[in-house]
Write a structure and sequence with these properties.
Layout (H helix, E strand, L loop, with lengths): L1 E4 L9 H5 L12 H9 L4 E2 L2 E2 L11 E4 L4 H7 L2 E5 L3 E6 L15 H8 L4 E2 L8 E7 L2 H12 L4 E9 L6 E5 L2 E3 L10 E3 L7 E9 L3 E8 L6 H8 L13 H11 L6 E9 L6 E5 L4 H6 L8
Parallel strand pairs: 8-15
Antiparallel strand pairs: 1-4, 2-3, 2-4, 5-6, 6-8, 7-8, 9-14, 9-15, 10-13, 11-12, 13-14, 15-16
């Protein structure tokens, strides 16, 4: 990863303009069009927060990008944050579907079929969620990742913004969940049920506001909508969540901070390499809507 310190003479310039002309390790420079396309793919961060091409930078900010992942990012038109011969990790923006469907114009699956034929998803996240997605490049890698997932060897951590103030710094939510076939998008699909599957989420408070809490959630199990259902069950549903959230709180967050989606972000993946078995840990950029509500995220990179 390369870091560019915004100099005083670049204060107020667009992000893509600052990035244009950046030098690759081999001495070549990033063209104006590639700088623009790289920003459009969401692969450039300002102080650790995913930046937009037209965003204006300020003196002292740090712009980061990864030269060796530029070409794959441009092929997929999605930010690649890690890649080797077996695995690719993407940073999915909110609103992009993971799988194809009759009402889906664009999906991660479409991008993979076009640019990486033979690859496949080793996990998934909700359409309105953002963050890291683990991809196996071929059948053997996908099989290895599937075995690791079944064995609990793939760790997934999320940032979430919950309605209300969580008093406890850390708590474990151990509540069985049952997945239904509820078709309506404004009704819960996953319910707490004594006869459901064992489901465990470990929740740690990162920061608090007077009306909401930024939490980090580590999944011990991976049920459909697990975080959303668990946080609702303890009285702190995710902001912006149309299925499980509080309508009044969602409306306030939309009016105050422009919250337009479920505030859930896949921030860290740790998995054994299918090639060597060695541990690999990947961290995501932060999302702009998270940083608007919790500006402290920008200083943490």
């Amino acid at each position: 990863m390369l870091s560019l310190l915004v100099a005083a003479e670049a204060d107020g310039e667009r992000l893509d303009a600052v990035l244009r002309g950046a030098v690759f390790p081999d001495g070549t420079k990033l063209s104006r069009q590639k700088a623009r396309d790289l920003c459009a793919a969401g692969a450039v961060a300002i102080d650790g927060v995913r930046g937009q091409a037209a965003e204006r930078v300020r003196t002292g900010q740090i712009v980061t990008w990864t030269p060796e992942l530029v070409e794959l990012t441009l092929q997929l038109r999605l930010a690649v944050v890690f890649a080797d011969a077996a695995v690719v990790v993407l940073h999915k923006p909110p609103g992009l579907a993971v799988h194809k469907g009759p009402l889906v114009d664009r999906s991660v699956a479409d991008a993979l079929a076009r640019a990486l034929p033979g690859s496949g998803l080793a996990q998934r996240i909700d359409r309105e969620a953002s963050g890291l997605l683990l991809i196996g490049r071929d059948a053997a890698s996908l099989r290895a990742l599937g075995i690791a997932m079944e064995a609990g060897a793939i760790e997934r951590e999320y940032l979430a913004i919950a309605h209300g103030v969580l008093d406890q710094h850390h708590r474990t939510i151990d509540l069985p969940l049952r997945i239904t076939d509820e078709p309506r998008g404004d009704q819960p699909k996953t319910l707490v049920d004594p006869n459901g599957q064992r489901s465990v989420s470990h929740v740690t408070v990162v920061d608090r506001r007077k009306d909401c809490t930024l939490v980090r959630v580590r999944l011990e199990t991976g049920r459909t909508h697990q975080i959303r259902a668990h946080l609702k069950a303890i009285g702190h549903p995710l902001l912006g969540d149309p299925r499980y959230g509080d309508p009044a709180a969602n409306a306030t967050a939309r009016a105050t901070f422009g919250v337009q989606r479920t505030m859930l972000h896949g921030t860290r993946l740790a998995f054994p390499s299918p090639l060597t078995g060695d541990p690999v840990t990947v961290d995501a950029m932060h999302e702009p809507d998270f940083a608007r509500m919790f500006p402290s995220l920008a200083s943490r990179g």
